[in-house]
Design brief:
Strand content: 35-45%
Structural class: mainly beta
Radius of gyration: 13 Å
Distance between the termini: 27 Å
Oligomer: single chain
Order of helices and strands: EEEHEEE
Amino acid sequence: MRASDVRPGDWIVVRTKNSTYTLSAYGDGTFAVTGGWFVAEHQEPARVRVVGCTWGGSAILLRMVAAPGMSTEVDNGVRTTHAREVRVLRGDQHLVH
C-alpha cells in the first residue's frame, strides 16, 4: 500500500509473523495504530506517522505504508516483523447510501 493511495478514514490491517496491527488514516499523513507492540506496551491507540517499509536492512522505501514481505516502521522507532498479509478497508465502503 503506497502512502499516496491512502484516503482519510481508510483502515489498513497488517498481519505479521507475530501480531496484527490496525492503522486508521486521519488524512493528514498520520494514523491511529493498535495491535502488536502498542498493545504490549499499553500505548494504544497511538497517533503515528509511518516512516516507510524495509526488507529488513537499513534501506527504507519512504512512500510505502505496508507491503507483504516487508516490515513497516513508524516514527516512534517501532518496526513490525515482516507482513504476511495487508488488507485495506476503504472508509467510504461503510457508508449507507
